[in-house]
């Protein structure tokens, strides 16, 4: 069974795999099942690209791929990792962002591939 078919299957079973996608230059959309959270695209520590972050859907947290700061996606508070400001998070999803394009091949956590 693929992750996509598991996500579409109703009833009990494994939770759908969380996804992170870039929706504007400044924002990523984190989807954990039906929950959608908009967050800053860049980590407040040293600007790591959170579209490559690891999401813990059970704890509603995202971990930056560069130095592994972890942020609560409900409050934006850093829960571990290097000291830095709070991650900007928004719970509401503006309609015009719902149909954002899929990720661009070649993107990396450090910037676009050359
Ligand atoms: S840039 Fe995100 S933890 Fe350092």
UniProtKB/TrEMBL annotation:
Record's PROSITE patterns?
RIESKE (PS51296)
Give me the ranges of the annotated region Disordered: 1-22, 95-114
Which segments constitute the Rieske domain?
1-90
Gene3D superfamilies linked to this entry: Rieske [2Fe-2S] iron-sulphur domain
Pfam families cross-referenced by the UniProt entry: Rieske (PF00355)
Keywords (alphabetical) are:
2Fe-2S, Iron, Iron-sulfur, Metal-binding
| The keyword Iron-sulfur is annotated on this UniProt entry | yes
Comp. bias regions, Low complexity: 1-10
Please tell me whether the keyword Aminoacyl-tRNA synthetase is annotated for this protein: no
- The protein depicted here goes by the name Rieske domain-containing protein
What is the organism of origin for this protein? Streptomyces sanyensis
């Amino acid at each position: 069974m693929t992750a996509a078919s598991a996500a579409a299957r109703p009833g009990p079973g494994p939770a759908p795999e969380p996804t992170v996608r870039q929706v504007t230059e400044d924002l990523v959309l984190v989807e954990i099942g039906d929950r959608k959270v908009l967050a800053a695209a860049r980590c407040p520590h040293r600007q790591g690209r959170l579209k490559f972050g690891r999401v813990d859907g059970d704890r509603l947290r995202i971990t930056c791929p560069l130095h592994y700061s972890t942020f609560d996606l409900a409050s934006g508070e850093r829960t571990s990792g290097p000291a830095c400001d709070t991650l900007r998070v928004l719970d509401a999803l503006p309609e015009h962002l719902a149909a954002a394009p899929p990720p661009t091949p070649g993107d990396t956590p450090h910037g676009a591939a050359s």
